[in-house]
Amino acid sequence: MVLYRRDADQLIGLLKRPKKDGPIPDQLAAFQRRMSEKTALRQYDVGAGLVGRFADTAQRKTACRIIDWVVGVVSEAGADACPPFVVGVGIGGDFELSCLLSKKALLRDLAKKSTEEFYAKLEEELLSRINALGLGPQGLGGDTTALACLVETAPCHIASLPVAVNIECHSHRHKTAII
Q1: Do 39 and 67 fall into the same domain?
Q2: Percent of the chain with pLDDT over 90
């Protein structure tokens, strides 16, 4: 289970109440309900979604591992990454190239999806899983944790499949015009 800083602070606050007040059962029950919902989100089964099209178990496991790892990286970054953010993912090549690809993905127009159907679906799957984390803007909770998740790829051997994640704060994307 992922326990965010605000959740830990809330739990500590409830448990540190003076004994004469006693813990408020409704608040503890609400906290426990929220934590079980987050656990259910972490156990989301992608086998029936995007990677369900693979007949080969090894391919399915690889795709699930990539998705879970990217979502885990974003979850660990949490509010420190200043959500809502844009997530760039580089897959393939060598590790240096995958890092460059993840940065290149950040430079792509947010409205443009990948031209390859598989990677377009991968971007959608990653975005929905990242938003399901419930971090929300500035980590205060909500359903918009990421504005986009963009994937760039390069060919490589499956045994060395490098994946890099680059998280960009939304404030880096701005435009000015002189009139």
Answers
A1: no
A2: 32
